[in-house]
Amino acid sequence: MSNPSQEEKAGGAAPAPGRTAVATLAGTTLEWYDFFLYGTAAALIFDKQFFPSLSPTAGTLAAFSTLAVGFVARPLGGLVFGHFGDRIGRKATLVVSLVMMGIGSTLIGAIPNYDSIGFWAPVLLVLLRIVQGIGLGGEGAGATLMSMEHAPEGKRNLYAGFPQMGTPAGLVLANMIFLVTNVLMGDHTFTSWGWRIPFLLSFVLVAVGLVIRLRVTESPSFNRVLEQDDVVTFPLAESFKVGFPRLGLTLLAVVANSAVAYVFMVFALSYGTKNLGYDRQFLILSVTASAVLWFVTIPVWTKFADRHGRRVMFIGGSAAILAWCAVFFPLYDTGNDVLAVVALAGMGLIIPVTHCVQGGIIADTFPAHVRYSGSSLILQTGAILGGGLAPMISTVLLGDGGSSVGVTWYLVVMCAISLGGAIALFRVVPDGPADLAEPPAEAVSPV
């Protein structure tokens, strides 16, 4: 392995940890841009474009079903990319995942609608959604590992939080491009064909992301795995040696965050415009502003976790999410713009408390030689049980009557499950990585 260049030592370029953190943030932002763009379009556009023969409720449910397909595909991507990430390295797999997401999103923008090709329109939509899901499945755990495993000593949570910032950043980027395109073209033109432009822009954005990502160095932790000849043939199977109690509790602890986030980011748009009469542009702007709060508070919470530990923060955050879910829809249902902004902003402030460290908690469950595979399994299973099904379940619970009471109870129960899982998890395991014997990442020179 080579030593850092003299330019890096002299401060002429960003050191490997900082450069890697920025690269993972850029990559995850672009991947989540593609994923959230689909969610916004599913909430507001796809029912009319791809399921026009269905009733409004059935059309919305069908559109959200295609959204869920991406979550079902994510574990497949997680398993495939996790396997190769533990065997050949993190960097190569993250490059491929970014390319897959970009191709899938660009082609979605080119699919003819139902009026043009009939049944094949939703079929192609589902197939490309699967490509998106596989790509994001490889990205989710891998980006966190790449940044965290480059982290200087004492900043593990901060660096693991950089890829998590890509989630709200991607949402902001997707919503702003979606909104600007809508405003410039007008509602009729936008819903007819203008919605395709944000998807087609994915090609340009991913090209920029690739330039950034190709400059990062391989993970120091993976380099140690190679040096110690710890690469295993089937890393996923090896990851189960952590034990089912810890695996199960980790999954329970993180599942609610995904469910709440997707109700906030996707379902609330559809419900607010179709049932409560909120202006579409107002809601998109409100959700976007809330995502900005989410983004800027992540470094605050990750620094807190590095100084004081994750246990109290994560459990407290889980309790806070539960409490806010109990009041979110009562505030939102008033139809009052000010109270709607309060409800959405509250989500933007509370969700990051647990979201910012959950990637690190999952990663620290596993030793380095199986970390990609094990983390992907937990993260993507939680995404299906939480985020992937949440808009569909919420739509079913809402029904034709339009009452949000069932949705509120659904979120409260999910949050109670995660709160119980978090309390039990931190009683069973220490608040730290599975491989504490590893030297700090900064002690190993980048390749």
TrEMBL record:
Membrane topology of the entry: Multi-pass membrane protein
Annotated keywords: Cell membrane, Membrane, Transmembrane, Transmembrane helix, Transport
Pfam families per the UniProt record, alphabetical: Sugar_tr (PF00083)
InterPro entries: MFS_dom, MFS_sugar_transport-like, MFS_trans_sf
Transmembrane segments: 61-81, 93-111, 117-137, 158-181, 193-214, 249-270, 282-301, 313-332, 338-357, 377-397, 409-429
CDD domains, per the entry: MFS_ShiA_like
Entry's localization field: Cell membrane
Residue ranges occupied by any Major facilitator superfamily (MFS) profile domain in the UniProt entry: 20-433
Gene3D superfamilies referenced in this protein's UniProt entry, alphabetically: MFS general substrate transporter like domains
The protein, known as: MFS transporter
Natural source organism: Streptomyces salyersiae
